[in-house]
Specification:
Elements (H helix, E strand, L loop, with lengths): L8 E11 L2 E9 L3 H4 L9 H7 L5 H11 L9 E6 L3 E4 L9 E7 L3 E6 L1 H13 L7 E8 L6 H10 L6 H7 L4 H12 L7 E2 L13 E2 H11 L9 H16 L3 H7 L5 H7 L5 H17 L4 H4 L20 E2 L2 E2 L3 H15 L5 H21 L1
Parallel strand pairs: 3-7, 8-9
Antiparallel strand pairs: 1-2, 1-5, 2-7, 3-6, 4-5, 10-11
Helix pairs in contact: 3-4, 6-8, 7-8, 7-9, 8-12, 12-14, 14-15
Pfam family, one: DndB
Protein name: DNA sulfur modification protein DndB
Organism: Kyrpidia spormannii
């Protein structure tokens, strides 16, 4: 008697669609099957594509934690997959109303390549190790037939070329899980100088804009400020500190108030002053954290000293510290150097990192001075 090896298949319930004259299929796949079916193997890809598809392993625990921490609220978009194999579609009925509903049979030796969603796949795999009960939930998978995987590279390029990431400000505007995002949003209408002058959607401000701040800038500055009290404080205390600090310091920033009163155009202030740019806002947040930590009972009285700062872009003390050739530099080093100058004016001690940056800056100025002579 001859042993006959029967072919083995995966079967998926699907909806059939057409794009660019080619059939594709959408299915719902249990999460527990995702790591088994969708093996992300860079060795299957051409070398000139691998460098674009290397997994950022730091993202995997972040995605897994997102699922685990939000079992009733996580959201993942569909994973896009190319199948290299002889796929057969079987409609459930000849009725035209149901002709695109059916199943596909995929040989078990077919090759599945993830075109878009490799980090989601890896995050799901990591989350299931801790919360295996999530395996009964589903994710949408879009299957494209790509025999020989000839179109795989082009699909990857097309999917990523036309993908547009939302701005940082828009992410903060819609993020209801991050408590600091919640605080930042509330500040935009609770702090008088922020109200009406904050760009909520974009993370950059155009030359013609009437806005002075971005929501992402307020968020970043407030994150710096709240390092003064840490995560152990409740949201109400964090909110109270943020409101008190920004409301108090804004009284002594003349340029902010000129814009609020409509006496100077925002575009003119952005052109001529540095304290209306995000780097200054974040530096003020860092300054606030040190003030609160070092002078918890006196900072509200000390903060009036900020009114003595000459914020004009032409002020020579800013060159090399926050401007390079008159243009504002947004580097981390410049952020530290700007914060150092504000701390010096306010009488606040510098951290070790700030002292090192200050020494390097002064050394650079000294070398530049000798060269010029």
């Amino acid at each position: 008697m001859t042993n006959v090896k029967l072919p083995m298949f995966y079967t998926f319930p699907v909806i059939r669609g057409i794009q660019a004259g080619r059939e594709y299929y959408v299915s719902m796949c249990p999460l527990r099957l995702v790591p088994r079916l969708l093996v992300f193997d860079e060795e299957d890809l051409e070398p000139n594509l691998r460098s674009q598809r290397v997994l950022n392993k730091a993202r995997i625990p972040v995605l897994a934690k997102y699922m685990i921490d939000n079992p009733n609220g996580y959201v993942f978009s569909a994973i896009t997959v190319s199948i290299d194999g002889d796929v057969e579609f079987h409609p459930i009925s000849d009725d035209l109303n149901y002709y695109n509903l059916g199943t596909i049979r995929v040989p078990m030796d077919a090759k599945f390549i993830v075109n878009d969603g490799q980090h989601r796949r890896a995050g799901i795999e990591a989350a299931l190790k801790e919360r295996p009960e999530l395996g009964n939930e589903t994710i949408a998978i879009v299957f494209f037939i790509d025999r020989g995987l000839k179109r795989c590279q082009q699909m990857f390029a097309d999917l990523n070329r036309h993908a547009v990431r939302p701005t940082e400000s828009l992410n903060i505007l819609y993020d209801h899980r991050d408590p600091i995002a919640e605080i930042a949003r509330s500040l935009t209408h609770q702090v008088p100088v922020f109200e009406g002058l904050t760009e909520l959607e974009r993370s950059t401000i155009s030359n013609r804009s009437t806005k002075l701040f971005t929501l992402s800038g307020i968020y970043r500055a407030t994150c710096e400020l709240l390092t003064a009290i840490g995560d152990e404080e409740d949201l109400e205390d964090q909110h109270k500190l943020a409101y008190n600090y920004w409301n108090t310091i804004s009284r002594y920033l003349r340029e902010w108030n000129l814009a609020k009163e409509g006496r100077v155009r925002a575009s003119e202030l952005r052109r001529d002053y540095i304290n209306v740019h995000t780097i200054a806002l974040v530096a003020l947040g860092r300054l606030g954290a040190s003030l609160v930590q070092q002078h918890p009972d006196e900072w509200t009285n000390m903060i009036c000293r900020i009114g003595s700062v000459d914020w004009h872009r032409s002020n020579p003390r800013w060159e090399g510290r926050v401007t390079i050739g008159g243009r504002i530099s947004y580097s981390r080093n410049n952020l530290v150097l700007l914060t150092n100058e504000l701390k010096h004016i306010m009488g606040v001690e510098l951290s070790n990192e700030e002292l090192e940056a200050e020494a390097a800056h002064k050394k650079g100025l000294s070398i530049a001075g000798r060269i010029s002579h």
